[in-house]
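Structure (tokenized):
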């Protein structure tokens, strides 16, 4: 395949290329005839990741013989000219397999259902290369050599299933992508992040049950269930006060908080992304000063349960980002003393991924899993239940 590199956007006037972006023209050679466009671009060393190509296609920045393509999975012919303008793939170094104990509920050749403890990050990122769930999974599946990883520039946490059928039909073409055998080889969703096998995420401070894919076909089918809302996920949260009514549905938009870009917030219509949760009060605690609430996700937005709990006016205990470390003003002095002592022993949001249900990606069997809350959450519940009535 012949290649010429140029600066500027395809179809535009040449300009100085940004250090993080490149423009490339490729001419399809005989040995690449019949292959997918995104596979060809992603297999060119140091140019684009496959997810970057898919993002560029959506943005209209990939041309095939001068015409913008609409599907990254389009097949190419000898002599076709591909132009692509997008972010350069950055080499982030390597990550190591690490011998970290895992609590595994289920495993077969397609997926692993695993408990993520509070305090563990799901996947490596810049400045955080070890101690993650991915490091532990690499060791679990028997990968011994360091894994070279590269960044992905796409945004958001929901897998795009537009090319799902084409991906599954062309699974054999995924062997060239550089993640280890034993975990799926799909590119990550976020900038400068690698997460082989990771279909969905939990925040560092959240404990609970997750599913991990062991091959690309399983990854695609599982990710499609999360995107299409056919998976089931619920969380247990220890909240301040008691939501009223005791069960309900929240349908809002969630986006970045304009006052604090590290937070998410409920935003006005037309901004952010739609976020739907249902909730029910499982137990009223301490005369209504706190409660155990079960949230069910119908979408999967960043910090969705935490944001919706705050939006209800009943933030999750221990959640410093979303108001969960501030005692309600209605508490009396003695009540404040009790809860200050409790907060001293809480070092994360009291949020736990309680149940997970999905259809097995190969057999079609419906699988359901439940994870009991960890000891720190149980201890907090015991403490509150034992408080003297007043």
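Design, position by position:
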């Amino acid at each position: 395949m012949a290649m010429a590199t140029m600066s500027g956007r395809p179809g535009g006037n040449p300009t100085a290329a940004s250090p993080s972006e490149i423009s490339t023209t490729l001419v399809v050679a005989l040995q690449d005839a019949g292959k997918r466009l995104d596979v060809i671009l992603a297999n060119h060393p140091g140019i684009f990741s496959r997810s970057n190509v898919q993002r560029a296609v959506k943005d209209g920045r990939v041309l095939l013989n001068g015409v913008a393509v609409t599907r990254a999975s389009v097949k190419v012919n000898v002599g076709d000219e591909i132009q692509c303008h997008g972010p350069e793939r950055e080499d982030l170094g390597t990550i190591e397999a690490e011998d970290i104990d895992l609590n595994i509920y289920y495993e077969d050749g397609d997926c692993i259902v695993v408990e993520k403890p509070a305090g563990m990050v799901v996947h490596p990122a810049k400045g955080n290369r070890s101690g993650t769930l991915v490091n532990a999974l690499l060791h679990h599946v028997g990968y011994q050599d360091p894994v070279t990883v590269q960044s992905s520039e796409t945004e958001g946490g929901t897998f795009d299933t537009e090319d799902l059928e084409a991906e599954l039909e062309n699974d054999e073409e995924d062997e060239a992508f550089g993640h280890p055998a034993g975990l799926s080889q799909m590119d990550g969703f976020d900038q400068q992040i690698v997460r082989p096998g990771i279909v969905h995420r939990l925040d560092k401070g959240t404990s609970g049950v997750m599913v991990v894919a062991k091959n690309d076909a399983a990854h695609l089918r599982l990710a499609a269930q999360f995107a299409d809302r056919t998976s089931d996920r619920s969380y247990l949260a220890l909240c301040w006060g008691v939501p009223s009514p005791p069960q309900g549905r929240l349908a809002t938009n969630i986006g970045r908080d304009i006052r604090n870009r590290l937070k998410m917030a409920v935003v006005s219509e037309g901004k952010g992304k739609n976020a739907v949760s249902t909730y029910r009060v499982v137990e009223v605690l301490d005369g209504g000063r706190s409660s155990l609430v079960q949230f069910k996700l119908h979408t999967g937005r960043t910090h969705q349960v935490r944001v919706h709990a705050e939006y209800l006016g009943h933030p999750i205990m221990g959640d410093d980002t979303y108001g969960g470390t501030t005692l309600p003003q209605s508490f009396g002095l003695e009540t404040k003393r009790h809860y200050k002592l409790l907060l001293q022993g809480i070092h994360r949001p009291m949020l736990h991924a309680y149940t997970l249900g999905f259809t097995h990606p190969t057999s079609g069997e419906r699988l359901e899993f439940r994870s009991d809350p960890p000891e720190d959450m149980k201890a907090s519940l015991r403490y509150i239940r034992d408080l003297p009535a007043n």
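Reviewer-requested clarification: The first strand starts at residue 2 and ends at 6. The CA atoms of residues 8 and 14 lie 4 Å apart.
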